[in-house]
Structure of GDP-Man:Man(3)GlcNAc(2)-PP-Dol alpha-1,2-mannosyltransferase:
Amino acid sequence: MAAHDHLSLCLCDLIRLLWSLLLPCLYLCLVLTALLVLVVMGIRMWMQRKRSARRDREKCPAVAFFHPYCNAGGGGERVLWCAIRALQNRYQDVSFVVYTGDQGVTGEQIIEGARRRFNIRLPRPVKFVFLKHRVLVEASMYPHFTLLGQSVGSVFLGWEALTEFVPDICVDSMGYAFTLPVFRYLGGCSVASYVHYPTISTDMLAVVRERNPRFNNADFISSNPALSALKVVYYCAFALLYGLAGSCSDVVMVNSTWTLGHILALWRAPGRTSVVYPPCDVRGFLDAPLEEDGGGRRHRVVSVGQFRPEKDHRLQIRAFRRLLDRGGAGPEREALRLVLIGGCRNQEDEERVLMLRGLCQEQGVADRVEFKLNIPFEELKKELTEATIGLHTMWNEHFGIGVVECMAAGTIILAHKSGGPKLDIVVPHEGGQTGFLADDEDSYAEAMERILSMTPAARLEIRRNARASVARFSDQEFEASFLAAMEPLMATLER
């Protein structure tokens, strides 16, 4: 028999074998699908019984917020406590629960921390469900495929939360979109989400496609076309899964125009999505008088933001060094200081602060840079009202509560030329300038030099414009928008 005839017979046998396996494979898929449906239905019925027993016991419905880092001091936590306060004031007969992964603290300490950091007092107590496996969403757990690892970890953390307490409505207030299907399909809950920052965005895809070594795109990947192509495929697949998970949300709230564009592109739920600007405690700063910063003033450049890598404090320190290198005489310039204010969530953040201190030593500015960690609200207010420049350097910041607070306090803001600050915040108000934008060390140093060289009267005009523009970001505006967005879900509790 010729070789090609033998090959033809082998191919025919292979095709017959595959065809004979097709029907059994279809049967197996149907059986596994049916088993999966039965398991999901069984879990859902179990959860519904738990919820019914809880409602019979407590005599009221419950709204839960999934926020594993609720004891941190960032803008996301301020959104959480303002949202709970708004709902508590409106709905007297509803109980509220917070899922948190904070250990070693009590609920009373967490509430006191919110009062001390944000000047927020809740009308009545909330219940805390303390999760034991928050480590599953820590980035340090996943040196590779971090986005996927954290997302899968959030599913397990969401399952832990659901088994501990089954609410009527669950609000993801921290951006863990993959928990939404868990609460909706397994828990039978209505779900809402407040998105501060999309887990993946078209900008991130562009960074990989362009082979740009920025943030989470390592040098060895950006320098290798094949690895970059594989990462694009990975990101595209992840973006698809992220969109499917997010589309489970009954109500979607986003914090800025920039975030809105990305979420609409990924979640594709325009009818359920609205912009709800985060609450900025502008009222707490507006009582500080705006006056010309005359001669003899000690100029201070102040940054407000958690010590996370994306906040790019390294850029702030290097730009400050560039500013000092530009010269400038006089006692005011000699007294110039950079003050870095922010919260530390964990040991990783504390280690990052140590590295930043080391960078200050390398740059020769250690004696002119101050670090203030987890400070109370009154101290924050004092620092901002006494500062000349408010500094912000995060690329594609989703919104920028710290930016708004600086403007309300009367500092001249210098923010990154991207994201929320560019699109929503540092924009002209009634034709007047409200601040400055920059995007690299040189442009930041140049802008700071320009601000410091302005006359006190010129600075005062910009400060007044900025303060007048931030009323749209007040607590009251947030509460009205948040309650309007949540109204369709909260109405279901009365049925």
Notes: The chain has two domains: 55-279+476-494, 283-472. The chain is about 55% helix and 10% strand. Residues 71 and 169 are 22 Å apart (CA to CA). The chain has a mean pLDDT of 88.
